[in-house]
Amino acid sequence: MGNGAFQRVPLVFTGRSGGRSLWLVVLLAILGAALCFVVFATGRIAGTRAEYALRDRALAAFPLAADSLKGEIEKQRMIPLVLARDDAVQEMLRSPSTANEAALDEKLRAIARDAGSSILYIINPEGVAVAASNAGEPTSFVGSDYRFRHYFTEAMADSAAMQYALGTVSARPGLYLSSRVDGPEGPLGVVVVKVELDRVESRWLESGFVVFTTDERGVVLATSVPQWRFGTLSPLSAKEKQTARDRLQLPGVTFEPVPLSRRGDNLVTATPESRSAGFFAVSQDLGKAVPGWRMSLLIPADTEISSAVMTARVTTLLALVLVGFVIFIIVRRRRAARQRQEVLVLLNAELEHRVELRRAELQSSNAALAGEIAERENAEARVRRLRDELAQANRLSILGQITAGVAHEINQPVAAIRTYAENAARLLGIGRSQETAENLTSIVAMTGRIGTITETLRSFSRRASGSMGPILADDAIDGALSLLSGRIRDSGVTIERKRIDPSPIVMASRMRLEQILVNLLQNALDALKGQPEPRVEIALAENGEMVAISLRDNGPGLAPDIRRSLFMPFVTNKEKGLGLGLVISQEIARELGGSLRHDDAGHGRGTSFTVELRRAA
């Protein structure tokens, strides 16, 4: 009986254990498969995103590499075009002489040196070089026959040509740019400049990318990998090789394919150095700047893509492990939470009672706080209104100070109008209608001038709307000088403007900016009274995203006590001043998103103020 009981218990236990183990194995297999799929998919997504990032980098770097090549070629292309119209070149080709040749050689040598050209030379209609920048050197081109060169024959036929080839003397590759010299009797010859693209290729190499150009047959020309030069992107037929040899004039080159193969839409495998690596490639035609050329840029991709994939997979794996651990913790805590539930019910009842009491207290506090906020907002609104009214009063005060000068400006055209009117009446009486019409035209011009002056005053006197927008800094300076033109002329002060071409555009309200400048100009004019050779210098400067307008006078400067409290209200060194002009101007500058500061160079050496404003996008 004991043996029977002993035998039945293991049988039941073994069946249950086997069923649970099977389900556990199946569950673990499903979870493992799901985990592998998620990790693999995450790696694929990360690799795709890394390719997108590489594409963005390549598209951003491509214009820089292309512009470097285009800029060098366009700069050199102008040299033969200009020399083809040069009188000395045409005279040399019409009437060759030793003296003309020596002078022209020296001229070509100077131009080549200044422009960074490799060689600059002139060929007569027979194809013989008659002048060159390397004349007198062992490698001189003078006397060499270049009738076999395409850049000569095509320029003679089409006025201009371009050819990439090896030099017959230097055996160095370069781009030949030529332009025909035309005279009244027909073509006189060809001017040729050879451009060796070493500097461009060096900049490509320094960028860390692989950059190269190919012609219409896929032959590599300019490149940051010298061993790829005159290789091809794909095998050429015998006819294509012969055409390439003739065009590039490379009789001994076999045009072997470069070690580059595609492995996707934009991914390639290349061997620019000793070992193969993956790159992300972008290609684009160079257009009219270099007809028939196509540029390719390769960015190293293997490390970045593999790093992104590995990082994503490891991160996903760790995240899934962490999620599993969190789920385990949550399950355990839910068990503990059930045990604490009864305790929490009692605590919640007590807490709700206390919350109700606290809510009543907070409602009372919120009501009091709302009243204080409303009172503060009303006070701030009053401050803003008072500040705007103070700025308007300052602007009207400025207008009162410059009224006499403006009246003088208006009196001149009024007197001229009267004179023209009297002359028109007399001329009309004697039948001289043409001259009468001219006098009436002059009267119209004078009224326009009066209208301009009054419009300036009216615009300046309006209450500023506060609206900001892009304006030319020079326009605001011109407006301020126009308002004070009469006073400036009567005071004998010299205004010196230092401009920037083109004038910078700032974000500001023109009326408010003019108010700042008029305040600063009036202070400078007051400080220069009685000074020998009074002068005010107005300068513009650009500093990153900011534009600075500086006004400096050569007056006596400011006393130390005035400088220390310069931007405090009611601080002034004028007998009738209120001490509010600089305070208002500084506040306006802050509202415009800029600043106003005092840049005094030192006591006795004048006074300088600078207004800084944001540059307009």
Describe this structure in words.
GO terms for molecular function: ATP binding; phosphorelay sensor kinase activity. It is found in: Cell membrane. It is an enzyme of class 2 (transferase). The chain crosses the membrane at residues 21-41, 310-331. Helices cover 56% and strands 18% of the residues. The protein contains 13 helices and 18 strands. It has helices at residues 2-83, 87-94, 98-115, 150-158, 198-206, 238-248, 302-429, 433-461, 473-483, 485-491, 510-527, 560-564, 581-591; strands at 119-123, 129-132, 160-166, 173-183, 186-195, 210-214, 220-223, 260-262, 267-270, 277-285, 294-300, 469-472, 494-498, 505-508, 535-543, 546-553, 595-598, 607-614. The strands form four sheets. Strands 7-6-11-10-9-8 form a six-stranded antiparallel sheet. Strands 2-1-5-4-3 form a five-stranded antiparallel sheet, with helices on both faces. A five-stranded mixed sheet has the order 13-15-16-18-17. The radius of gyration is 42 Å and the shape is flat. The termini are far apart.
